[in-house]
Amino acid sequence: MNNYFNPNSMYTEEDFIRCFRMRCHVFERLLHVVQQVNLYFRQKLDRTGHPGFSPHQKVTIALRMMAYDTSTDLMDETFGKSESTCLDTLVEFCNTIVQLYKEKYLHEPNREDLDRLIRKVEDRGFPGMIGSLDYMHWNWKNCPTGWQ
């Protein structure tokens, strides 16, 4: 919490973006929505009566595992959370995101989506690009030999 989320955090907004691949307000909005939908992401007391992992910790673990393809061992060392709990957290997070955003973002594009994307790519100078990844002819200095 002291590193990223408190008012006088140790790290800056730029550090947050580099670490989480999103702005802090986006993380907070995602955290809030996930907590509303899935009780798993609310803080509870453990069997000894002490507070368990915070919602911030749970979402942080899930996002870091996805953003960095991090193993559960590293999460165990960093957050002190067991491998099975890290995996449970990741599964709960992914299922919740699918539940929340399936209809709006996780579907094949419809006509309206395609029209919006076509306008966007044309504005950026890539007309006719939808549906054809081979249309992109950029020089890629470090392109793997097999793709050339």
Features:
2 domains; mainly alpha; 148 residues
Q: Write the H/E string, N to C.
A: HHHHHH
What is the number of helical segments per DSSP (H or I, 4+ residues)?
6
The termini sit apart by 46 Å
Sketch the major β-sheet: none
State the shape. Answer: globular
Q: Total domains, how many? A: 2
Average pLDDT taken over every residue = 80
Q: Tell me the Rg in angstroms.
A: 20 Å
- The SS-based structural class is mainly alpha
The amount of beta strand, in percent, is under 5%
- Helix content range: 40-55%
Please mark out the parts with pLDDT under 50 across 5 or more consecutive residues, or reply none: none
* DSSP, total strands: 0
Characterization of this structure:
With 148 residues, this protein is mostly helical. Helices cover 51% and strands 0% of the residues.
Compile the SSE list and pairings.
Layout: H1 13-20, H2 24-37, H3 55-68, H4 72-79, H5 83-101, H6 111-123
Helix pairs in contact: 3-5, 4-5
Short description:
By secondary structure, this protein is mostly helical. The protein contains 6 helices and no strands. The radius of gyration is 20 Å and the shape is globular.
